[in-house]
């Protein structure tokens, strides 16, 4: 693929899935700066591995895999510097933060941030209505294990949300 075609294909795919990246950043970044850094790191990782996308799965499934692996692995570093040559090679995307939420949604996000990396990823995919088969592809964990983990995560979230509801944070 010619460089210009690659850039256009990348920009088009990311534009259609930018909200997905922001959701991951929201769950794994504790501050606005952390979320921005993670967004940039995900963009770099996605751009660098874009040629590896073979179209065997939906682009969003592949993007989840790249983004979650980036977030879970903790590749992002505070104030990570990207070489200027590399930064210029990455197509520019709109710079915006996720919209403000209502109180219930904020409590849910707060509870989710208390989960570990895999639990956060599983919760995000569940909230995105991904099937267990898709989750298996994205996370590399077999379906029966995912079902058990999801049951435990739901219970953990119930307890965390009850703590918020009854003021025992």
UniProtKB/TrEMBL annotation:
It comes from the Bacteria. Residues 106-157 form the RNA polymerase sigma factor 70 region 4 type domain. Keywords: Sigma factor, Transcription, Transcription regulation. GO terms for biological process: DNA-templated transcription initiation. GO terms for molecular function: DNA binding; sigma factor activity. InterPro entries: RNA_pol_sigma-70-like (IPR039425), RNA_pol_sigma-70_dom (IPR014284), RNA_pol_sigma70_r2 (IPR007627), RNA_pol_sigma70_r4_t2 (IPR013249), RNA_pol_sigma_r2 (IPR013325), RNA_pol_sigma_r3/r4-like (IPR013324), WH-like_DNA-bd_sf (IPR036388). Residues 17-81 form the RNA polymerase sigma-70 region domain. Gene3D superfamilies: 1.10.1740.10, Winged helix-like DNA-binding domain superfamily/Winged helix DNA-binding domain. It holds the Pfam family Sigma70_r2. Belongs to the sigma-70 factor family. ECF subfamily. This is Sigma-70 family RNA polymerase sigma factor.
């Amino acid at each position: 693929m010619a460089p210009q075609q690659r850039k256009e294909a990348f920009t088009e795919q990311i534009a259609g899935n930018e909200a997905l990246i922001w959701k991951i950043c929201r769950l794994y970044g504790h501050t606005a700066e952390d979320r921005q850094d993670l967004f940039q790191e995900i963009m770099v990782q996605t751009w660098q591995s874009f040629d590896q996308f073979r179209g065997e799965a939906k682009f969003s499934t592949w993007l989840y895999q790249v983004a979650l692996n980036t977030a879970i692995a903790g590749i992002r570093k505070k104030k990570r510097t990207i070489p200027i040559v590399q930064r210029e090679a990455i197509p520019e995307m709109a710079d915006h933060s996720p919209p403000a939420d209502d109180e219930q949604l904020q409590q849910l996000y707060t509870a989710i941030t208390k989960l570990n990396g895999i639990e956060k990823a599983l919760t995000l995919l569940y909230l995105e209505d991904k099937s267990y088969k898709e989750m298996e592809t994205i996370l590399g964990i077999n379906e029966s294990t995912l079902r058990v983990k999801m049951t435990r995560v739901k219970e953990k979230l119930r307890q965390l949300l009850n703590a918020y509801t009854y003021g025992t944070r």
